[in-house]
Design a protein that fits this description.
By secondary structure, the protein is α/β, with parallel strands linked by helices. 39% of the residues lie in helices and 25% in strands.
Amino acid sequence: MSMNADPQELAKFGDLAHKWWDPEGEFRPLHDLNPLRLDWIDAQVRLPGKRVVDVGCGGGILSESMARRGAEVLGVDLSVKPLRVAQLHAMEAGLANLAYREVAVEALAAEAPASFDAVTCMEMLEHVPEPASVVRACAALVKPGGWVFFSTINRNAKAFLLAIVGAEHLLKMLPKGTHEYARFLRPSELSRFARDAGLDVVEFKGMEFNPLSKRYRLTADTSVNYLIACRRPG
């Protein structure tokens, strides 16, 4: 199985790994977004007691928050340094219901199909060469009746201006080069990937940033950052 990962992307996030848990650092947008996406996921899945895999977990911001809500969480990633940071942070927090593995989602899907009540894959699809392959693997990992959640960035002029020009160059919310516009995904494309993988698309939500209040909120506007909730029939 060839690895569905971009070595440059892995290196980029690896170089920043030591800053992952700094809420005022390069990953501040993830810290700011996390309460929104956590509550949204929890409202669908009811996390306590559920088995969840967080695909592309990075330094573990979402993984750890889901474990704190009572889920049994496995975080997976292919970038070694962020995984080490995640493991250390979880160890310091004493979270026995949280584990991490360096493994490709496609390999995990072949090893443990239909093993999880929910699968999360946040802010990852725009960083891999073949996002459809990730979607298929996520669909294979979830149990019948289970939930799969994705978040990514739309591909249009507004998203280019806000997510790249604004966030990376003007507001400096993210390091320059964090995103590549050509890898952004339209909701219609992600919906097609999900349906082709056997998932039912249940809901879309936009995540909107207010530069004045510096806060995010969930909206119906999916023109830039958006979330999608899917279910595996069964």
